[in-house]
Write a structure and sequence with these properties.
globular, 62% strand, alpha+beta
């Protein structure tokens, strides 16, 4: 898992450092022009361990506006992440036209602070299908500090 996180962080860093290619820029622009349409909510629990580069993993549930729900797992990484924590996350999913569109690689930014039993912070991630997840920490345990401008990413998969 650490190596996957390191590779994902490397990819995010490369995109940040050297800019994006034209097709990615066009896709991002198309997503940016799309109106956010709420599709449902997300609840997850994630664990993070970091010493400058943080590895994160966890699982959760998406509940769509029509009441349907499905489970997922995630793993990824973030630059400028120090400490160890377990965080409860709640948020909103936008632009999810098909359940299958939820799965894949998300890039974004977010930051926070976890001190023993209280978490503060949030994240905003977008995948290649213009699905947007805006989430915030609603509880947690551990001691962790992460830079709000540090790039990061996660890979979301269906739960078995």
């Amino acid at each position: 898992m650490f190596w996957k996180s390191l590779l994902l962080i490397g990819a995010v860093g490369a995109l940040t450092a050297i800019g994006t290619n034209q097709s990615y820029a066009q896709k991002t622009q198309t997503c940016g022009e799309r109106e956010l349409v709420k599709a449902g909510t997300i609840r997850a629990t994630g664990k993070t361990v970091g010493i400058l580069i943080g590895a994160r993993w966890g699982s959760g549930t998406v509940t769509l506006n029509n009441g349907e729900s499905f489970r997922f797992t995630f793993e990824g990484g973030k630059l400028l992440d120090i400490g160890i924590s377990e965080t409860d996350i709640f948020g909103v999913v936008y632009n999810l036209d098909k359940k299958e569109d939820f799965f894949g690689t998300y890039l974004g930014i977010g930051g926070g602070l976890t001190l023993v039993t209280k978490s503060l912070g949030g994240v905003s991630f977008t995948n290649g299908k213009c699905v947007v997840v805006n989430a915030k920490a609603v509880g947690g345990e551990g001691v962790r500090l992460t830079n709000p401008l540090g790039p990061g990413g996660i890979i979301v998969s269906p739960a078995n």
